[in-house]
Amino acid sequence: MAHVATAGHAVHDAAHHEEELTFIRKYVFSQDHKVIGIQYLITSLLFLFFGFSLMMLMRWQLAYPGQPIPFIGGLLGEANAPGGIMLPEFYNQLGAMHGTIMVFLGIVPLAVGAFGNYVVPLQIGAPDMAFPKLNMMSYWVYFVGGVTMLASFFLPGGAANSGWTSYAPLSVVATTGQTAWLFAMVFLITSSLLGSVNFIVTMVQLRAKGLTFTRLPFFVWAQLVTAFLLLLAFPPLEAAGVMQLMDRLAGTSFFLPSGLVVAGQALDVSGGGSPILWQHLFWFLAHPEVYVLILPAMGIVGEVIANNTRKPLWGYKSLVYASIFLGFMSFIVWAHHMFLTGMGTVISTFFQTTTMIISIPSVIILTAFFISLWGASIRFNTQMLFALAFLPMFGIGGLTGLPLGLAPTDTHLHDTYYVIGHFHYVVAPGTIFALFAGVYHWYPKVTGRRMSDTLGKVHFWGSLVCMNGIFMPMFIQGLAGVSRRLYDGGQQYAHAQGVLQWNEFMSVAAWSLAVFQLPFMINFFLSIWKGRKVENDNPWEATTLDWATPTPPPHGNFARVPEVYRGPYEYSVPGHPTDFFPQNEPEPAKG
Amino acid sequence: MQIPYTVHPRPDTGLFNAKLGVWLFLASEVMLFGALFSSYVLLREGALTWPHGYEILNIPLATLNTVVLISSSITMVMAWASLKLNDFAKYKRYIGSTVLLGFGFLIIKSFEYGAKFSHGIGPGDSTFLAIYFTLTGLHGLHVIGGMIVNGYLWGPGSKMWQSDPERLTNRIEVAGLYWHFVDLVWIFLFPVLYLL
Amino acid sequence: MFELLGLPLDASAHGPKLDQMTVVVHWLMLFLFVGWGSFFAYTLVRFRKGRNPKADYTGVKSHVSSYLEVGIALFEAVLLVGFAVPLWAERVNEFPADADAIVVRVVAEQFAWNVHYPGPDGIFGRTDIKLVSAENPLGLDREDGDAKDDIWTVNQLNLPVNKPVIIRLSSKDVIHSFGLPLFRVKQDVIPGEVIPLWFTPTMTTAQIIEASTKTVSISAADTSNTVLLAMVAQADYATTDGTAILARGDSMTPEAILFLVKAGIKEVKAVHSTPAEIACAQLCGLGHYRMRGFVTIQTEEEFKAWLAEEASYL
Amino acid sequence: MSEHHTAEDIKKHVRVYINVFVALMALTIITVGISYLHLSVVPAIILALVVATIKGSLVASYFMHLISEKKMIFAALILTGIFFIVLMALPVLYYGDRFY
Ligand code: HEA
Ligand code: HEA
Ligand code: CUA
Ligand SMILES: [Cu+2]
Question: What is the CATH number of domain A31-256+271-548?
């Protein structure tokens, strides 16, 4: 049988398939990477919004501790918020679920599941992912994990409440919600593992003719490194999750030392376990995980910058090497989250050193992006604004990682709002902005219509201002020594008194941020029907293969099997008639 | 347009998709069991006392189980070789025995578990038992998974021999990789839990 | 930079070095941010489409950026070798001898800090989890000879000034984190382990109060200002006809604030009632936010007197 | 591995498989035998792990054909190997350097 179909065959095949598929097969249990990508997109955006909503509730309590929540306070249930006043138990549930949902159900599925799924096969000129059935399964396993996570709010005692880090022994003695959390995590990890196997095989095996590794778009590289991180870092957390489940359900004490007295009662377990073991296994995943959050974002930013500067990305090779190095190093820095667990000089020196080293590739990547701007002809459309704003925002987040990465300075800052500020700068105005850029950038390919630039700009400027309004004061509070995860925002503490006034400010900024998401949501849904139609398949005049498909791409993606002749970002090539020279366009005949 | 390299290897990598896929999956399995082994060492290191496996566990049964599992590995690889030699009937016999041997493994394992539970010994009684039950339980789940796949390839899945023999051969190779890995894990589990 | 960063008052011997390091790191961060930021801002203006309609294929050719990256790496190396490693070593390796220090046990539980002093014999008595009860949170075995003179308190840590203190931390239930923002120490408290920590307080509570006293303006709207209500006055205040409203050391109450405003007093000198605190930094359950203890630093004599007083209740 | 094998090749393979199987059985008996010697902990662990590693390599090399596998797979496995070692270093990180 033929494994590379001819062009005519392909089109015919695609049309043929399309007719046969029932609605369910086409839109629900679809095996088409694009439909799955869209399923991921919608689901993860909803989770993102949900995670944000949880946070807006928390911000009420932080700004106005002990006052009844207006409008919806009464709907939260007597067990959570009697008289509309949030209980500490409920605050802790919200915090743990906000972190978990944002990271595992929001950003990762959006960055990898949605963008990776939709864009990677297009960019490498493949008809689909290598294993379409597996792809479908990843999505549905993710979906089940997500539903389990949400359903846990309705368990007695509510959802998990031991932080997204689920440190034992607190998590082992916690309410049933923690069991649901663990089961949900096992689903999510399984989904990620299936997905990452699929991604790596696709990127290695299904590259179009001529598309060598050095010609891969940076976004594909970023996804490739990300997939390896997921593949190798997640299993230890799965193992840890199984052990914690055993601790909770089978009475083992993997994470419980002997001699615990909880609530005045000696705990009846065999003991002999180690709480630190959980932390090691958790951070063995969770540190690489933060690069899973940032790498695809950097990939998107790279695409958007190259496209809208109209020139090649500067230092493509160093970008690729830096990403690989970043991925590699991310496996040996995890214990910088654990400096204060009793670490001696030798090991802490090791982890401080690796942490400083890992900041260098990030600097290289950012520097390459900055230098790419030199000599450019910058188009300030919405996606470019988001991509550009990513740079200083990630810069702030990354730079504040430095004092955290040095154990002596971390002593004062550990578990304060400084940490919260640090990572929100990288994930919220960092990653989320990059993902917004991606939405605006690829929207025309998916729908055949553009999103409104005006609404987009309102969305951008509003979000930029509000994000900084939320997260900048966190550094002030953190330096003052205010602990994180405080139900009353630190009200009782003397050292917090000078910075308490920021709580209200930050909350107002967070609610305003929500208001500025309205133009986005309107834009997103309305443009499906009302957006300006694209004039051709390549509205941004881009060079990569994702723009060489029909719009929207049919099942099987390409009308003709693409072949690649050059690197990914050949913009403004001297002597070329247009300012972009697509990867799949043959060299013009000489003479 | 069809997905390329599902049957024949891609020239520059020399691999067909599923093979790379299963190796990657096994890489993640290495990290999964690695984390448990590492936890085992860590907990043992920190424990005041640690029993010798042979004081608590049944070595003859486990040895028998090792033999069973290794045998199932050889039948698995013979199943693949039979397909390569175009001998479908032999293939059916070998893959069938692989499934049966897997079954045998589980039955012996259940005797082991049963003996423990009937003496009221469970995972909650000591850290050693906790790790024993977790590791062997997880390994047992892997055996069950492999049996389902192999059972499918013995039964309905083997029909592919008529339509696409090369693809079936690939599938057996890939299923074999997984099955040998399960065997490999046991090769380490056995001394670590029972003999040390 | 120190003031700019808004670090709290520093009342420990090693604190200034940590703060100095924090300041140095933040200078580096500021330098990098401003450096890249100005380049960034310049390119955005200079190379916008309107100004530069045709992009340049090659762009920057120089290798300045590589030097810069090497420079950053070197600076980080200096931070590591020059500051981070020695400072950390001092924290965890150079403990004073027990004999030269005050040794205290702190046992964390949901949601309190139990402080255990060895008493005059200098030896901690036996504890047993079987004896733990509401009246005996440490599970102290008073039958044990060494335990007879032991003193314990809840959420109150008294220490003498200018003498190294070693605190042995342990937890009865979950992980807590023993944080003293004013003394620049923080240490996770892990159940199953006993983790020590040391520092030398350099200011007495009286001095801390002195140094933290602020002049705050008040208005009639402040009767529900939680910041203000947590404070105590640091001077005597009276109405114009001499009726006392607040004496030094009195807490600010809504009524007092109203009286002060009525008397035309717009500013008061005040300080938080408990300026030095133990803050639990690790999520430990629903009461994490209120797991607050108090630190009182006394002169040597005051401390002795306090110990004697506590001993007299035994 | 899956391509271009003559029947002759395969038959050769089969002989190798059978040899490997015999070796595995023998090594199993050896490990169990050693355990009855009740050596002290360190030599017992070292011996048991050495034997297990030999057995594991046999399975991987011959049953899983790793010995003639493609570059790409080695690359992935070496990477995994490195991180596996990192993972196994956890106990060292934990006990090796606590300051108390
Ligand atoms: C996407 C997520 C992400 C990213 C990329 C990073 C990046 C980094 N992180 Fe962060 N981190 C988190 C997410 C992330 N982190 C999270 C979620 C937590 C908390 C988890 C929890 O406890 O709940 C955390 C916590 C955390 C800690 C633990 C703190 C504590 O608990 O006490 C530490 C300590 O070392 C640390 C360090 C670093 C370092 C050194 C980097 C470096 O990689 C950063 C390197 C980047 C730079 C150095 C910037 C370079 C840019 C420029 C120089 C240009 C400047 C730009 C302009 C002017 C325009 N992080
Ligand atoms: C990826 C991770 C991520 C992201 C994006 C965010 C985003 C935000 N986070 Fe979160 N946060 C965490 C991860 C994240 N957080 C983690 C891990 C913790 C620690 C938890 C713990 O203690 O265990 C934490 C804790 C945390 C705290 C500290 C709580 C405490 O310590 O008590 C606070 C406080 O303000 C906070 C605030 C916010 C805010 C205001 C945002 C905002 O930036 C949110 C912005 C969101 C959006 C802008 C949504 C956009 C989406 C849409 C508009 C949807 C559109 C929909 C369709 C079109 C269908 N977060
Ligand atoms: Cu104790 Cu938080
Ligand atoms: Cu980290």
Answer: 1.20.210.10
